[in-house]
Amino acid sequence: MNKKILILVSYIILFINSNLLGNEKNDNLKIGLLAPLTGEYADLGNSLLYSLQLALEEIGDEKVFIIPRDAGFNEKDKLNEAIKDIKSQGVKVIIGPISNEDFNEVRKYSELIFISPSNISPKFTSNIISIGISLESQLKALINFIKKQKKKKTVIMFPDNNYTNFIERKLKELNINEMKTFIYNPNPQVLTGEIEVLTNYAQRKRNLELRKKMFEDKEDEQSIKTLEKLEQLYTLGDVDFDSVIIIDFGNNLKSVLTSLVYTEVDQKRVLFTTVNQWFDESIFYENTIKNLYYPSVNYDEFRKYNKKYFKKFQTYPNEITILTYDALGLIYYAWKKNGKINSINDFMFKNKIKGKIGTFSFKDKNVFQELDIYKTENKKFIKF
Question: Which listed CATH number (1.10.150.110, 3.40.50.2300, 3.40.640.10, 3.20.20.210) goes with 135-199+239-296?
């Protein structure tokens, strides 16, 4: 980390602790932050600090301040030391941990409340509330969208990797029985062959050849025109689905999209959807797909946040920092609403809460985001 960044981080820590130095009254809202402020993930930790500074400035309440501590990343000893230090300051609620792998560790501190940006589970788990963009929220948004498009046969596609069991469990919990699932090998050399089977590609090619032979020896004008049209095709016949949900990212997602187009899946008939891509502009250069739909946070708010962040710090934020920005807003809302925060039950809001990423709803100890549907078209993200 260069000297300029070190000075800036030091300034932010001083800024968000200034109220603590000047006022120790009980009516203050003290919020802890567990972040990797040193080591390999220090940039992420510093980005979280910057984000919370922006949130504090927007709230504009001098009784609110943050106590940040270096919790490392998947370092149990450092995490426990940070929690104990924060707890000693009289803090009741903490933003973090960043990784769900630390959940078992923080459950030991039952007297504290942890608001995590993790997206693994939308449930209130013991003393932890996860506000990440959960797979459940994304799938619900996509399924509602697909139904509105009057699609009847959907295939949910996802790779065979470390997250396969997790995805299968989530699908079972959502009771999505009417949709077919297709697990593929992420290796591009194997993937195309598997998708050829899914799309019945070989048979559809044979269908075309048989159809062409019917007109090859005919000389009437209609047969000649029909054969000319058939010569423009690579396959003949529809696939046995009219929409896909691809749970994948980056180059793996692009490989799946390319394979679907290669096997002649009709984009006019089949709806292509995927999960949250955080407005990854590299998808613009995937020229094989004309329209790709996915659920996401509010794009206008996301752009405003990034612009404000860049103007303040001359760098762009990590995507998950907007979640911690909203976490501070949720904590502040609960504190103002109840006068204090005693337990995790103080976050069981009856009304929906609007944040930067979208609208939160809290029901039966579950957190869901009402996500918008966007599509990529002409190198733009367009709200559907």
Answer: 3.40.50.2300
Give residue-wise pLDDT tens across range 194-205. 999 999 989 988
Residue 198, both tokens: 């899914």
Task: Supply φ then ψ for residue 179, to 5 degrees.
Answer: -105, 135
Closest CA to 63 of 93, 33, 22: 22
The pLDDT tens digits for 37-66 are: 999 999 999 999 999 999 999 999 999 989
How do beta strands 366-370 and 359-363 pair? antiparallel
DSSP three-state, residue 25? coil
Q: Report the alpha-carbon angle 36-41-44, nearest 5.
A: 75
What sign for the dihedral angle of Cα 64, 123, 88, 42? negative
**pTM score, two decimals?**
0.84
175-197 b/e with 16+ CB inside 10 Å = b? ebeebeeeebeeeeeebbebbbe
